[in-house]
Design brief:
Layout: E1 5-6, E2 17-22, E3 43-48, E4 51-62, E5 75-85, E6 88-99, H1 130-157, H2 159-182
Helix pairs in contact: 1-2
Length: 189
Amino acid sequence: MSGPGHRRDTPMPGQAGTSVIMGRQWGYGSPFNGLSKLPAGTRIEVTTGQGRSVFAVSAVRRSGDELPAPAGNRGRLTLVTASGSPYTPAGVLYVDAELTTPVQPSPPRPLRLGWIAPAEEPLGGEGGEGGAWLAVFLWSQALLAAALLTVWLHRVWGSWQTWITAVPVLTALGLAVATAATRLLPNLL
């Protein structure tokens, strides 16, 4: 929700191997909205704790397209987002970019592929987990209770006192319900 994210079972951008960055196509500021329109050769700059790495776009592909050759000792960046109409994904879009600056050293930590949760996979989400639904349910119950209290207070206090008190509470609870509900959406939307 706070922006594009590095898939933690891949090397950091600029290091040897294929680094994967996943970002949302439409929600939360749409950071990867125009990704499908990147022409070959487009320059992408990434800054990490090791410095600045520059990549050049080599291909735009979709699910089912031929995979590029393994990066080996070279660096590659793959940007991943959803494809299709807004908020109705048709698949996954990949943009591959080759490292044009020198390869950064990799730390001596083993990378194990496949150790990420299903919610971290492309188009994965928290919808199948009980925690996301529980948060929506509890915030909705709090909003309902506040609405009922607002009706009761309107009868006891009157109109303007009730609205001065209730509007901020109802607004905050409405935002909490909406935030909890967005956790149910797939991660690349």
